[in-house]
Amino acid sequence: MYIVCVAACPTGVAHTFMAAEALEITGKKRGHDIKVETQGSLGTENEITADDLSRADAVIIAADVAISDKERFEGMIKLECSVSDPIKFGDAVFEAVEQEVANG
Which residue, 65, 100, 71, is CA-closest to 84? Predict the structure, then answer.
């Protein structure tokens, strides 16, 4: 499964990058191809492209602030959670999105 993710926290520093790392590690451990965009104090990094969106089975938005360009995910299977959830409950986040994909 190909899952695109966005991580963003209010200050755009520590939790953004901790969540991005947790999403990558847990996703790969569960056998998924993962791309994580970060939106933080340095701006947007590792931006999700139109090609990524066309390939993606689902999106995880781990954010405690409004993210830029959220409308690009319209019509996709989407899980929204707190930026801390992938850090604390990584497997549960992926189990939830896997369940959503399985249920179509």
Answer: 65
In CATH, what number does 2-102 get? 3.40.50.2300
pLDDT tens string 18-64: 999 999 999 999 999 999 999 988 899 999 999 999 999 999 999 99
Q: Cα-Cα-Cα-Cα dihedral of 83, 91, 44, 76, to 10°?
A: -100
Domain residue spans of the chain: 2-102
How far apart (Å, rounded) are the C-alpha atoms in residues 25 and 56? 18
Please confirm, yes or no, whether 9 is among the known catalytic residues.
yes
Q: Could you say which of 5, 6, 9, 87 is catalytic?
A: 9
